[in-house]
Design a protein that fits this description.
One of its GO terms (biological process) is methylation. By secondary structure, this protein is of the alpha/beta class. 48% of the residues lie in helices and 14% in strands. It folds into 2 domains: 4-85, Arc Repressor Mutant, subunit A; 95-341, Rossmann fold, CATH 3.40.50.150. The chain contains 15 helices and 9 strands. Helix 4 crosses helix 5 (53-65) and helix 7 (95-109) packs across helix 14 (288-301).
Amino acid sequence: MFDAESDHLQTIIHGATAFELLRTAIEFDLFRLIEDNGGLDLAGVAGRLGVPEQPARVLLLGLASLRLLTKKGETYVNAPVTKRSLLPTRPGYLGPLVEIQEKITNPGLRDFAESMRRDTNVGLRHLEGPGTTLYERVTVAPDLQQVFYNNMGHASRQTFPLVARTFDFSKLRHVIDIGGGDGSNGIELAKRYPELEVTVFDQESVLPIAKRNAVEAGVGDRFHGSPGDLFTDTLPTGADGILFCHIFEIWSLERNTELLAKCYDALPPGGCVLVYNFVSDNDNTGSVSAAFMSVYFLTVASGEGMVYSEQDMRASLTDAGFSRIESYEGVGYRHALLVGYK
């Protein structure tokens, strides 16, 4: 007899199927079609997707069983979570995350066990190119680089405004965004704080994307790019704030401490580093999203990272030399914001 626990186990065992049900629905733009029509029955779905009723029925059965659709009489409608997160016009849309899972993450996840044995990202073998991290390899694959930064930029636009509202950046003159990618964080700051200068420090291949986005946003005159490698190159000087956003989860705790010490050295007295990141529970029992992302960082992205706890972040800041550390609430999305002052 099946119960809720058995269904949960079946969802784990057939996780790849669950993902394909979701990905396929997005490929067919099904959730938007259902929303625009106020719901659709089987014949309506089949007709709008241009497929026979039998495969349409298979898709609808799967989506309803995953509670992404609900049924009222013979009509399928979007569930509340689908309305929030799977409609392209909604701010919480997760389509870019589904795309990066499909094209970059999922091919390597079968190498998780071997990555554990070797203590490195064996799953990266599915992506050709130079270097030992995902971040290096996407630089020679423009299509995948676009997929990667579409997701990173989308995530930043959802989460970083909470940081910009929570921390008072008006007391800073110039902020460096380490690994700033397409410039989403820096653009948000420059728009909110008209006196603030922003520099993105990242690989040279991505800086034109960031600069173009800044110009389109009308903040290009206060937006700068500085190419470099976080580990081998010196950080730009002259800034009194450094963003260390969604960097901590990529690397080992030892390497994070090394990088934060590098930030400490680049800052003037009184300057600060803002560490903003996904966090796991302090007792290492959750969340589910932290667990899933940790497998990605170990197996594909870097071979050494995971989603750490707030306690881990605080310890690294302390070991890097920051004696005054502030913690901020209300930054949402299972994130933490710690600010260390020199």
